[in-house]
User: Fold this.
Amino acid sequence: MATQNNIIEQAFPETLKILSELIKFQTVSGTSNIELIEYCEKKLNALGAVSFKTFDDKKLRANLFSTINGKKKLNGGGIILSGHTDVVPASIKDWSSNPFVADERDNKVFGRGSCDMKGFIACTLALAPYFASENLKKPIHFSYTYDEETACQGAPVMLKELKKRKINCSICIVGEPTNMKAIQAHKGCYEYSTHFYGLAGHGSAPDKGVNAVEYATRFVNKLMELRKELKKREPKNSIFNPPYTTLQIGRIKGGIARNVIADQCTVDWELRPVVFEDGEFVNKTMDDYVKNFLLPEMKKTYAESNIKKEIIGEIIGFNKEEKSDAVNLICNLTGDNSRDVVSFGTEAGLFQELGISTVVCGPGSIEQAHKTDEYVSFDELKLCLKMLVDLKNQISN
Assistant:
């Protein structure tokens, strides 16, 4: 009978191979991930997995949900191993190696998505044959989603299908990079783009046009006022750092030249609420400000002026539970009982909302995510493999 260490040593080279192949798929958010999903589906279905896919409206991006029952038929329940397939953009000129070609050096794998979070997906795929070969007490589900980095657009589509099919799962492990520590809560993440439409004209006569950039600037100034208010609304005994809801401006884009009145401008901004009420407070305040002040002023000069808010995504927070089966499971498997919280967002709250006990735990550090020369260390990958092997031993006869 193979020992735990033997299984890990056998699975590790396969993990590196799979991770290298996953990195080659340039699954930047908003682009197609179909080839990667088909790659994962083929591997899992070859092991006898039962799979289904869900798609975005244009059928360019897909989620995959696959179930391995082991040697016998199991009904209901089970543990979800969840990862997102998309990555943030990478500029080749800024990297010391091609970001979409895995580069193994210094006991690390460099490449876009190596840490966030193709490393976790590679570990799950490398150990899938071991799950398939055992008499499992509970099914193992593999959930791979699209466009998590852009406000978790894929997961809700997949979860809606789970609910429709009445697939009930007891635990979900979201493998975001946490240095293999159990994360029991995080803030929400609300992302918006507010579009301003004015009237163009010659820069020498600014009063004859409606400058979208200037009105966008006033909008941003109002957001900055609310940022100060959010600090005052800090909840008592907040478990987060920073302990209050944060607000920041990601991008402002508008106008075509210095001497032309800008007729269009877009402000990309986000909230990280510690409580749901803060999100309501900011949105109501800004909606009222637009409706009662900014837009009426714009329309005085040009009746067709407009301001539209685009909701990119409103990711609910992941709430701490006094008793969490998922957190307890990970702490038992890793031997680390630290039970931390983070400020970055994940899909965890979406699984939790379905009544599935959820935890965030995966290889790599969030300090490497989204960075130039992103990497995951060999040691972190091996720790993830160890956790999954221990999980297999715990749910097999």
Notes: The chain has two domains: 4-186+318-394, 189-315. The CA atoms of residues 24 and 39 lie 12 Å apart. DSSP finds nine helices and 17 strands in the chain. The domain at 4-186+318-394 is CATH 3.40.630.10 (Aminopeptidase).
